[in-house]
User: What shape does this take?
Amino acid sequence: MASSYEKYQKRRLISSYFSVILSIFLVLFLLGSLCLFVINSKKISDNFRENIPMTIFIEKSTTKADLDKFGASLGKKNYIKEVKFVSKEEAAKEHQETLGEDFVEYLGFNPLQDSYDIHLKGEYVVNDSIDTILKELNANTAISDIKYDKQLVDLVNENVDKVAQWVLILAAFLTVVSMLLINSSLRLLIFSSRFTIKTMQMVGATKRFIRRPFINHSMKLGIIGSILAIIAITALTFYADSKMPDLNINPKEDYMPLVIVSIGILVLGMLITSISTFFATQRFLNLKSDELY
Assistant: This one.
C-alpha cells in the first residue's frame, strides 16, 4: 500500500515538474520570439522599404556618354542600394509580354524611354528624405521624370510604426503574464511541500535555510525551461531565414540578436522562478500550522 502511494506521489511530483517547465517554456518562447522580432524590426522594416522601386526616366536627347556618366554617378550615391539600367528596347519587350501584342510594330516607333530602376536604402524611404533626393536628382538635365509609389511609401511607413508599437505593448503584456503564470505554477508545486516546510520550521530551521533548496530547485526548472525556449527560438529563426531570406535575419552571419535574446531568456527564467519561489515559500512559512489545511 505504501509502495503504491509512493509511486502515486512520485508521478504527481513529476507531473508538477513537467507543468512548471512547460509553463516556463511557453511564456519564454513567446516573449523571446517577440523580443527577437523587436531587435530585428529595423532590418525587417528596411527590407519592405527597400523593395519599393523608384524609376528615373532619361531624356531621349541624352547621349550614350552622358547616360553612362549619369549611371556611374547614381552608383556612388550613399542613399541608393541598387541601380538597374533598363533600355527602351528592354522596356518595350516587357510591355509586349504584359500586353500580349507588339505595340511598337503597330505604332511604327518605340515611345518608351531609357530609364534607371533604383532602390533606396531603407532609412531613406521616408517622405522628407525622398523629397530631398528628388530635388537633387531633378537638378540633372538628363532626367525627364521620376516616378515612385508615394501611397505605398506612406502605407509601409505607417504600418511599420504601428506594428512596432503593438509588438512592444504585447511584449510588455506577455512579461507580466509570464510572471503570473510561472508564479502560479511554482506556488502549486510548493503547496504540495507545505507540511515539509512547516516541519522544518518547527524543528528550528531558519527561513533562509528552508527557502534555499526550494529556490535552487525552481531555478533548475527555470534553466531547463529557458534552454528549451532558446532551442525552439533558434530553430524558428533558422526556419524563418530559410523560408524568407529577403528579411535578412541570417543568424549565421548576424548572430548577436539571437545571443542577446538567449541570454535574456536564461536570466529571466532564473530570475522569475527564484523570485516566485521566494514569495511562495515565505507565504507558507508565515502560516500557522492549522492554516495549512
